[in-house]
Every structure is written in structure tokens, then in C-alpha cells.
Amino acid sequence: MTEDSELERIRRQRLAEMQRKMSAKQQPEGGTAKFEPTKILEKVFVGRAWEVYHAARQQFPAVADQVFRELAELVRSGRLRGQITGEQLYGLLREIGLDIRLETKIQVFDHGELKPLADKFRGD
């Protein structure tokens, strides 16, 4: 009898361990109610993509949030692979009708240092 009870105890332990492992696997997936696109987009944005992202969110908050949620969902599902540059993101936003204004600076390399173009014209 003790051998049967020992086997039953081991089975219960293994079953409890398997249930813990299954619940641990399901928790990240179950956390989709708190879906954060920025965490997913961190993996694929390169170059000036974050600059374009922040400008779009500042200028068109509602539409940009929706676009970036969809973009993150595509990345998460595996339908969009590879890295996204700032130029690609800017082009995508332009195609859907968002004309994002970015700050533009023109600098020249003069005597070993970068200077704003206005300083070059002034002769400084």
C-alpha cells in the first residue's frame, strides 16, 4: 500500500509542476490586454525611426497610435520581418496621408568642425 501511495504522490507532484509550467507560458500571452507597441517596435526600429515615430505621435496622436499598434501587431505576428528605418517609416506615413514635419538642420564641415549653414554664410 505504501508503494501505491508513493506513486500517487509523485503523480500529483508532476501534475502540479506541469500546471505551473503551462500557466507560466500562458501569462505573457494572457497579458495582451496591456499591449505595448513601443516594446515590440524597439526590436525593429533603426536609425531615425524613433525620431519619425515621436514626430508622428506629436502631430497626429490618434492616427499615429492606431498605425503604430497595427505595425506592432504585424511585427508580433511575424508578417513583418526585418528592420524599419526612419526613411521607410516616413514613406509609409506619407503613403497613408500623414505629412510629418521633421526638424531639418544643414551643417557644413569647416576647418575640422561642424557649423550651421547660417554661420558659414555669415563668414564666422
Description of the molecule:
- The protein is mainly alpha-helical.
- It folds into 2 domains: 1-34; 35-122, Helicase, Ruva Protein, domain 3, CATH 1.10.8.
- The protein contains 6 helices and 2 strands.
- It has a two-stranded antiparallel sheet.
- A hairpin with a 2-residue loop joins strand 1 and strand 2 (113-116).
- Helix 3 crosses helix 4 and helix 3 (49-59) runs parallel beside helix 5 (86-95).
- The chain is elongated.
- The mean pLDDT is 86.
- Residue stretches low in confidence (pLDDT < 50, at least 5 long) are none
In whole angstroms, the N-to-C terminal distance is 97 Å
* Count of the separate structural domains: 2
Q: Helix coverage percent of residues?
A: 55-70%
Summary?
The protein has 124 residues and is mainly alpha-helical.
Question: Descriptors for this entry?
Answer:
single chain; 124 residues; mainly alpha; Helicase, Ruva Protein, domain 3; 2 domains; two-stranded antiparallel sheet; 2 strands; 63% helix; elongated
